[in-house]
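User: Here's a structure from my thesis project, written as structure tokens. My advisor, Dr. K., wants to see whether a designed sequence matches the one we expressed. Can you design one independently, without my sequence as a hint?
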């Protein structure tokens, strides 16, 4: 599993993960979008409000973890892939929403394996209908995410704030 060429873009809300992921896809790389955003958009389309979704965060976070595992199970092991978040991100969100760690999370972590983790420094926090965190919450989540990866033995490659082209080039130079 360690040989899989899978690279994670992570960081707090507003780090530019999706923008960088889209840039990598534009270059022809296999890119896996963020599960949480997709599920959040589904819930909103079904008529739920942001507040309703956030009040039921325990089952929502478990669903995110389950979907992330399914999604990763579909990625060819030998394909260079960029992911918008990895399994350890769930640790940070469990902590942020005060959800107890459980067997499902531990099992998922035991099977997660990424070649490199790129922690994107926060660019800005803008509400977009899905992103509901304040700037302080985004900064706190950013810290929790970095902590979750390092606690699980991953070394972080920090990607500074720069243009999307500079970030892309930075990532490619650091594979």
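Assistant: Designed independently from the structure alone:
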């Amino acid at each position: 599993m360690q040989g899989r060429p899978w690279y994670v873009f992570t960081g707090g809300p507003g780090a530019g993960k999706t923008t960088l992921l889209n840039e990598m896809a534009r270059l022809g790389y296999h890119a896996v979008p963020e599960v949480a955003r997709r599920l959040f958009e589904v819930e909103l389309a079904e008529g739920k409000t942001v507040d309703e979704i956030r009040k039921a965060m325990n089952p929502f976070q478990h669903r995110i973890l389950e979907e992330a595992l399914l999604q990763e199970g579909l990625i060819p092991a030998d394909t260079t892939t960029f992911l918008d978040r990895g399994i350890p991100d769930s640790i940070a969100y469990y902590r942020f929403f005060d959800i107890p760690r459980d067997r499902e999370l531990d099992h998922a972590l035991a099977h997660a394996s990424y070649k490199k983790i790129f922690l994107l420094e926060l660019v800005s926090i803008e509400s977009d209908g899905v992103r509901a965190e304040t700037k302080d919450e985004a900064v706190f989540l950013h810290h929790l995410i970095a902590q979750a990866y390092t606690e699980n033995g991953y070394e972080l490659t920090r990607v500074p704030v720069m243009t999307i082209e500079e970030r892309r080039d930075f990532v490619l130079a650091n594979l």
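When you compare it with your expressed construct, this may help: The CA atoms of residues 150 and 156 lie 7 Å apart.
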